[in-house]
Amino acid sequence: MYRFMATARMCDEAAFRLNRQGKAPFVVPVSGHEGCQVGTAWALERGRDVWLPYYRDLAVVLVAGFTPKDIFLGLFAKADDPCSGGRQMPSHWGSRRLNIISHSSPIGTQIPHAAGIAYAMKLRGEDSVAACWFGEGATSEGDWHEGLNFAGIHRLPVVYICENNHYAISVAQKQQMAIDNVADRAAGYGFPGVIVDGNDVLASYAAMKEAVERARAGEGPTLIEAKTYRFFPHTSDDDDRTYRSREEVEEAKHHDPLTRFAAYLKEHGVIDDAAIDGVQAEAKAEVDAQIDEAWNAPDPDPSSLGRHVFAEEDGPA
Amino acid sequence: VTEKNVVTAIHDALHDEMAADDRIVVLGEDIAVRGGVFRITQGFLDEFGEQRVIDAPLAESGIVGIALGMALHGLIPVAEIEFADFIHPAFDQIVSEVARMRYRTNGDFGLPMVIRVPWGGGIHGALYHSQSIEAFYGHVPGLKVVTPSTPYDAAGLLRAAIRDPDPVIYLEHKKTYRLIKGDVPNEPFTVPIGKADIKREGDDLTVIAYGLMLHQCLEAAARLQQEAGMSAEVVDVRTIAPLDKQTILRSVRKTGKAMVVYEDNRTYGAGAEIVATIAEDAMFDLDGPLVRIGGPDVPAMGFAAGLEHAFMPDTEQIYARMLELARF
């Protein structure tokens, strides 16, 4: 778990470095969200469950099976970018092989998709689960309501995870909703809403594990609200100084999910400082090496622009 | 062969496809217990069960988004939007999600799904039960948009839509539902998506239409033959996107005159695209001006019979323009 969190953080730092070097025109940061992302994703099973992440979920897709190289192939818009072959902006995840469902930029559109997938799972008699992540901003969308409502009606095997970082780009939570807890909204759909400290990876895992077990047992959906914070601006094109004080951001960093988990591991004698340094160094070396591989990969052929509008004779159905 | 109306043809084709393939599910408002407001899914709930015949909450964006999820996980959803006028909340799901899934994943994901939509005027539907929506979706790459107008084409195109690996918007003109009858083979058959059809052969001009307007054009063409001794070739577009330019151009080159009739608002309508295609590719084969008849550029037809009639192009008007063009 710690390794995945550290790798996600390394990817973020490297991506911003590459952005400043002019090599990566657009970066969507994850930093601050690693705890709730790794914790919730950890309770799913690769090859069995279906992942519907949103653009901030770099750590989720690492747990789902992406390598740092996959991430950077997308960042550099390379032909072998597994999400879209360089068509979508970076961090618009997707991979049929890994059961990661492709998403777009309009917010919250994946919420009904998760319900539809979960409906199909139930109809087909599978014991798999659909997990769907989003920010608290998405919960203002009509699609969010429509998806959760349908999931509740049919008691679908789906877990909805809200990574509440308290800002929809610049709009603070109190301008987004008249309630303190997104989880309260679950009552309106007839299933449990659970609040968890999203900066605590183990608490996030425990909440998700219970929700996944409920879903597999046919007991229906759960809405998990993971309270967290984003350390960087919304994207590399945003300037969060216009809407958040530096004091607030610095204060949030005292609850950094990585330092918190490292402290926990040390306290319980699982690993020591040297081991943590070792994991960090290995993660950094892995990320750096894979950045180079991704950078040197071929660009998409411009003549491929017209492909895959519809199914091709020799392509997948 | 059995003579059917359009409703029965769609009902039977959908029924037979569902009976043959248990991956197919239907979802929409009032489609299960009620059997659909137009009775397309009458009896389906009893036969196929509530898991495959789903009364959806009143939420069109959700219906389309949920259908998309089903299509990603092994099912073939046939979603019904109760009236074309109510599809607008689903515009984002259709344009941003359904149409782009294959393209944005470089071919990794595909969406075998159908969105059935009753459309069109002439049924006292006023502003919000009469709309034409084909141009909105015909404009979007990644979607196939079909407009069958006869029982035969309705059955054949529905089967083709269900078996297509890509999303299809299947438009059913409400006025044709019980008005138009025709022979439909009892054995399963398909009508290819992307192929127009010559519904009446002729030499003096080409008339291109779809939906209710097709039938009005056929009526006017019969009268033209009878009263003026001139023959109009009537082309049924059948698929709005991808448009069968070849069949249209071949006919126009033969007759040298072309007229397009559609009931949607004239400006930027599907007829505009058809006329532009002819102007681009068959300009020097033309012996007369391109004629375009469409609904007026007002927001919609009114509820009052006179207002509705004033909006819809009628057979008399079509006949007069046909005669004028044929004599040009």
Give the topology.
The complex is a heterodimer of chains A (317) and B (328).
Chain A (H helix, E strand, L loop, with lengths): L1 H19 L13 H9 L7 E3 L5 H7 L3 H8 L34 H14 L6 E6 L6 H12 L4 E7 L2 E2 L2 E2 H4 L16 E5 L3 H16 L5 E6 L18 H8 L3 H11 L5 H23 L22
Parallel strand pairs in A: 1-2, 2-3, 3-7, 6-7
Antiparallel strand pairs in A: 4-5
Chain B lengths: L1 E4 H15 L3 E5 L15 H5 L4 E3 L4 H13 L3 E5 L10 H8 L2 H4 L9 E6 L14 H5 L5 E3 L4 H13 L4 E6 L2 H4 L1 E4 L12 E4 L4 E5 L2 H17 L3 E5 L2 E3 L3 H11 L2 E8 L4 H13 L8 E5 L9 H7 L3 H13 L1
Q: How much helicity do the residues of chain B have?
A: 25-40%
Give the proportion of residues in helices of chain A. 40-55%
Decide which structural class fits the backbone of chain A.
Answer: alpha/beta
The count of DSSP E runs of length 2 or more, i.e. the number of strands of chain B, is 14
Quantity of strands of chain A, as a count:
7
What are the secondary-structure elements of chain A, in order, as H or E? Answer: HHEHHHEHEEEHEHEHHH
Taken from the alpha-carbon principal axes, the silhouette of chain B is: globular
Oligomer: heterodimer
Largest interface, chains and sizes: A-B, 48 and 43 residues
Class by alpha and beta content of chain B: alpha/beta
Which overall shape of chain A is indicated by the principal axes computed on the Cα atoms? Answer: globular
Low-confidence stretches of chain B: none
Let me know the average pLDDT of chain A.
96
Strand content of chain A: 5-15%
How much strand of chain B?
Answer: 15-25%
Spans of chain A of 5+ residues with little confidence (pLDDT < 50)? none
How many H/I helices of chain B? 13
Biggest β-sheet of chain A, characterized? 5 strands, parallel
